[in-house]
Amino acid sequence: MPExxxxxxxxxxxxxxxxxxxxxxxxxPALLLVMGARASGLGWPEPxxxxxxxxxxxxxxxxxxxxxxxxxFDEHPYAVTDLARDAVxxxxxxxxxxAHLVGLSLGGMLAxxxxxxxxxxxxxxxxxxxxxxxxxxYVRPDGTSVPVAELPGIAPEILEMxxxxxxxxxxxxxxxxxxxxWRRLSGDQLPFDAAxxxxxxxxxxxxxxxYLDSAAHGRADASGMLRTAELARTRVPTLVxxxxxxxxxxxxxxxxxxxxxxxxxxxxxxxxxxxxxPSVHGPLAEAILGHTLNGR
Length: 296
Prior knowledge:
Layout: E1 6-13, E2 16-23, E3 30-34, H1 46-53, E4 57-61, H2 80-93, E5 99-104, H3 106-117, E6 122-128, E7 138-139, E8 145-146, H4 156-162, H5 171-185, H6 194-208, H7 216-219, H8 228-233, E9 238-243, H9 253-260, E10 265-269, H10 278-294
Parallel strand pairs: 3-4, 3-5, 5-6, 6-9, 9-10
Antiparallel strand pairs: 1-2, 2-4, 7-8
């Protein structure tokens, strides 16, 4: 069984504290979980975290303006690149020299920034549900080239939901909205378990102490994120998860990502979308641990 859970706040900037949680043997190789936009660390499901913590010292944390971390974007605006620096700050504060990084969605972009800018801190990277921070075109299997701007975009039903303002109609209505969001993010290849995601979000809301969502990450400055040359020459072992039902960065985004990062490998998880339901916990843990423990 994993070691007991340890919680700690770390200072990311003056007046900005980040909630962190650690589990697993302290002397095991560190593994940092980096969540997506507007998502707290509790977006990483407990069974998946425990499976990883059986072999690693696992850290998950709340980004700024999520969960129990400081919410102060209006007073102290920040850039997306600052969120990447926060990941390194977490490692610094916890006394961790190097860690395996696992990033989902925006977290996958943040992980790319860290492996590009601070490779000496990264043992390996696992990226999923994200796009490449590179201008290098995608090369199809037939050898033809596709400019990055012409790769498939986000599914219309998700863009439609993201375009609507989030209104406060009470906690149960907010749970309804979040479950519907997960339904759209999950894709159409696996049965959708609304009760599972409702319970997941109840825990996330209880953790945060509020059901009110924050749009801060969508307002953060997203400039200066391209790392074309750095990704092309990195020596950090990188695994890209190709989710066959991914609706936010659909195929061939994972294939493109694997092409532009030096030495990257690709693993496919059938039926997976842009979410982490119980049916993907096992295959995903196996893929991550195969990469971090065995380099395969």
